[in-house]
């Protein structure tokens, strides 16, 4: 998942991403990286725990911490306890880069889990690469983010994957021959989904409108849409705006299906939309508590509910798996460079969100679900493919 938090950060994120690519190509990284200590293995958390998308980061922090607690209770890694250094990047790309520098140079962590979003991840990867420390983002989905990045790993599917899924689903399942596309134009995540949707959808897009992150009044655009003939509204964006769009659309009498990506995930979406109006909603998720799950996933569900007294989101589950992927790669490793090499070799790792295998670019294609929501509750989930 990825969000452009403020327009002033765009250049910073772009520079960071370009710098990251440069670091890898120039071979300037410290290949050995940070040494794994004798009695502990330090893992850094770099999550959006406050700020614009704190709902994602706090969920991931909880899932990651649960994994650490369980691993330590079971004896740790090679008898070593995991020591967590937890930092809040405040949902800011520049802060994500600073946090990474602190984690790799001051705390000397051997691996980093987070950030949750693509913009923050792009900003963070250069400093992790320079120090020779692997960074795994549970949920950064921007296409091409890992290209040429030897130390960056992604734990979920990419934006283009979601756009294709939505196009197929609205065509085959919702029988939508005409749609409205309403995209967050301040978000590369949303624009990536929209681009893939346009390319894959064979029906007619009768209106292609945009909004900007931070907007709260969508009445004008929705009024324009209401006068058109369409079968569904596609909203590539985040819960912060998507929930308000649902609320205002339903309040205006627009009752057509509203479909989105994994940015709809979480209780915050329902809070913005209100349960009364959050019906006939469809969105993508990498994890579901409403379908039959594996024994491993059930154990995670039970443990998460017991620890936090709430339902885990897909972000919590992805972060939980990301910590376990790092722990698996840390077995026998003497330094962070070896952890990176072991991560790259990961094949068919069975986690609570399904199997993970990293390709040559360190991306993975995960099982995806299309969730059906009515009255603010997910009523069904089905496995979907692009």
TrEMBL record:
Q: Keyword Transport: yes or no?
A: yes
UniProt keyword terms in alphabetical order = Amino-acid transport, Signal, Transport
Where does the record place the Leucine-binding protein domain? 40-376
State the PROSITE patterns in the record.
PROKAR_LIPOPROTEIN (PS51257)
Supply the Pfam families for this chain: Peripla_BP_6
Example GO biological process term?
amino acid transport
| Coiled-coil segments | none
Q: Which SUPFAM superfamilies match?
A: Periplasmic binding protein-like I (SSF53822)
* Keyword set includes Ribosomal protein: no
* Cross-referenced InterPro entries: BCAA_transport, Leu-bd, Leu_Ile_Val-bd, Peripla_BP_I
Signal peptide location in the record?
Answer: 1-19
List the PANTHER family hit by this protein, alphabetically. Answer: LEUCINE-SPECIFIC-BINDING PROTEIN, PERIPLASMIC BINDING PROTEIN OF ABC TRANSPORTER FOR NATURAL AMINO ACIDS
Family in the record: Belongs to the leucine-binding protein family.
Q: What is this protein called?
A: Branched-chain amino acid ABC transporter, amino acid-binding protein
Q: Which organism is it from?
A: Streptococcus mitis SK597
């Amino acid at each position: 998942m990825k969000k452009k938090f403020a327009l002033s950060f765009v250049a910073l994120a772009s520079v960071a991403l370009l710098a990251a690519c440069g670091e890898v190509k120039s071979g300037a990284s410290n290949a050995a990286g940070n040494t794994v200590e004798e009695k502990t293995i330090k893992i850094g958390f770099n999550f959006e725990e406050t700020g614009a998308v704190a709902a994602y980061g706090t969920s991931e922090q909880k899932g990651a911490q649960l994994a650490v607690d369980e691993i330590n209770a079971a004896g740790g890694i090679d008898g070593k306890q995991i020591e967590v250094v937890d930092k809040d990047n405040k949902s800011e790309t520049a802060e994500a880069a600073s946090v990474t520098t602190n984690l790799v140079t001051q705390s000397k962590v051997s691996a980093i889990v987070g950030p949750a979003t693509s913009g923050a991840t792009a900003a963070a990867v250069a400093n992790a690469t320079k120090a020779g420390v692997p960074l795994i983002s549970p949920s950064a989905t921007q296409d091409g983010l890992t290209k040429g990045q030897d130390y960056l790993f992604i734990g979920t599917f990419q934006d283009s994957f979601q756009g294709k899924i939505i196009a197929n689903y609205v065509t085959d399942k919702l029988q939508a021959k005409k749609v409205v596309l309403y995209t967050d134009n301040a978000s590369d995540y949303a624009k990536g989904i929209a681009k893939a949707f346009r390319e894959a959808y064979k029906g007619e897009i009768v209106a292609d409108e945009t909004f900007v992150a931070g907007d709260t009044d969508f009445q004008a655009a929705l009024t324009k849409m209401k006068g058109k003939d369409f079968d569904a509204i596609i909203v590539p964006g985040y819960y912060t705006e998507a929930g308000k769009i649902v609320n205002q659309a339903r309040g205006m009498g627009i009752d057509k299906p509203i479909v989105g990506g994994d940015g709809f995930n979480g209780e915050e979406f329902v809070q913005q939309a209100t349960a009364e109006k959050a019906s006939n909603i469809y969105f993508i998720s990498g994890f579901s508590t409403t379908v039959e799950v594996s024994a491993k996933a059930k154990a995670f569900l039970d443990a998460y509910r017991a620890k936090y007294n709430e339902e885990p989101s897909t972000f919590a589950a992805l972060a939980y798996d990301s910590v376990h992927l790092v722990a698996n790669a840390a077995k026998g490793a003497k330094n962070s460079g070896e952890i990176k090499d072991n991560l790259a070799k990961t094949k068919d790792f069975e986690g609570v969100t399904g199997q993970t295998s990293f390709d040559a670019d360190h991306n993975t294609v995960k099982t995806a679900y299309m969730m059906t929501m009515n009255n603010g509750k997910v009523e069904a989930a089905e496995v979907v493919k692009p």
